[in-house]
Write a structure and sequence with these properties.
Blueprint: H1 2-19, H2 24-31, E1 35-40, E2 44-46, E3 51-56, E4 66-77, E5 88-101, E6 120-123, E7 138-140, E8 155-159, E9 169-181, H3 188-192, H4 196-199, E10 238-250, E11 256-257, E12 259-264, E13 268-274, E14 277-283, E15 288-290, H5 295-299, E16 304-313, E17 317-326, E18 330-336, E19 342-346, E20 348-350, E21 363-366, E22 377-378, E23 382-391, E24 396-399, E25 401-408, H6 412-434
Parallel strand pairs: 8-11
Antiparallel strand pairs: 1-10, 2-10, 3-9, 4-8, 4-10, 5-6, 5-7, 5-9, 12-25, 13-14, 15-24, 16-23, 17-22, 17-25, 18-19, 18-23, 20-21
Helix pairs in contact: 1-6
Amino acid sequence: MWFVHRDLVFSLAIFMLLLGISCSSFLVKTENKIKLAVFFTPKFELEPGSVIEKDYYNIDFPKGHIAIKSFNAEVVDEAGNSIPLHETYLHHWVVNRYYQSKHATQTRHDGQNIPENYGNVMVRNNGICQENTIGQYFGLGSETRGTRTDIPDPFGIEIGNPEEVPEGFEEKWMINIHAIDTRDVEDKLGCSECRCNLYNVTVDEYWRAIRPNYKGGLLCCYDDTHCKLKEGFEGPKRSLYLKYTIKWVDWDDFIVPVKIYIIDVTDTLKLSNDPKGLNSYHDCQVEYQVESCSTNQKDENDCVHVKRTSLPLETGGYVIYGVTHQHLGGIGSTLYGQDGRVICSSIPSYGNGNEAGNEAGYIVGMSTCYPQPGSIKIINGEILTLESNYNNTKEHTGVMGLFYLLVAEELPYQYFRHSTRSSFLMDVNNILLDN
C-alpha cells in the first residue's frame, strides 16, 4: 500500500512541477496543429457606382469543437485576383454566429435576409452594445489586408462546443458584406463615405424618411443603391467574391478561451425603467459625423476631431489582443483604463501606391496590440475611456470608432490549474480511496 501511495505522490509532485513551467511548452503543442482553410462567398455582381450589402447564411466554416486563431478576408475576382480599394471599396465585412433549428425546411445561401421567425437564434459576442448591435465575432473593412488577426498561443476563440448549442439546434455562421464599386464615379471619397446627395436617396432601406441633417452614412448606401457616375460613363459589370481565410486548432485542455468585446465610441449609457427596477442601457449608434474644422484651425494645422466615451466593462480580465476600426480620415484610437493607463492604442496606415493592399489615400492596415499576457488587466466593472481621432481638414460622414478586444478571464497557468489539475487530483483521490 505504501509503495502505491508513494508512486502517486511522486507523480503528483511531477505534475505540480509542470504547472510552473513556462507556457512555451504549450505553444509548441498548439503551433504544430494549426489548420488553415480558404473559402469563398457566393458570387456577387457590381457595376460602376453600384452597392452590395448582403447577408450570406450557412457559409462554409470549419466544423467541430475548435479554437479560432485567425480570420481575415478580401474582395477578389473570378480569377482570384485581389481587387484594389479604388475600384471596389470594402466598407466592411462582419461574421456572425447563429443557431439554426434542425427542423428548418430551407437554408438560404443567396444573400437575402432570412425572417426573424425563421428559426435562427443569433449568438452575439460578449458585448457591450445593446441587443445584437455590433454582435459579430469577426469583422474589418478597408484595412483588412494589412491588419494582423492572429491570436497568440495558448489562447483562442472557442466555438463548436456541443454543450453550448441548445437541443434541437445546430451552430452555423453568416457573413455580411458591404462593398461599393467606385470605378469612374464622380467623387470616390464621397461615394466611400456614403454621402446622401451622391446616392440621391431620401429614404433608408426600410423606406423610412432620412432626417434632414443626416449627410451620409449607412442609411444612404444600402444594397442596390448607386453612387453618381461621371458624365456619360457606363462601365461593365463584373463578378466578385469575398475570399476569407481561417486558421484554427482542435480544442483541447491546453487552450485558454478568450472573450470578444467590441466598444463603440458612439455608445452612451442610458437609464431605463423595467419591472425589476432601474437599469442601464447601451445606445450604440455605430457611426457618426466629423465636421470640418474652422479656417483658423486649418492655418494652425490643428484639425483633429476627438470623440470620447466612458463605459464600464462588467466582467474584466487580461487583454490579449486589441485593434480599432476607423474609416477614411481616421488617425487612431486609444483605449484607457480608469486610472488613465493606456490599454491599447491602434493607428491606421495609409497606402501610397496603386496596387491592392497599398492603395494611395486609403486605410490599408491598423496597428494591433499584443501585450504580454498578464501585463494589462481590466478589473471587473472598470470604467474604460475610448478616444477616437479623425483629421477633419475635410468633413467626413458615416465614420466609425470601434475597438475590438480579446480578453482572457484567466492566465494560462490559472486556467490550466483550474480546468485540469482539479480533475487530476480528483482522479488521484479516487485511486487512493480504491486502494
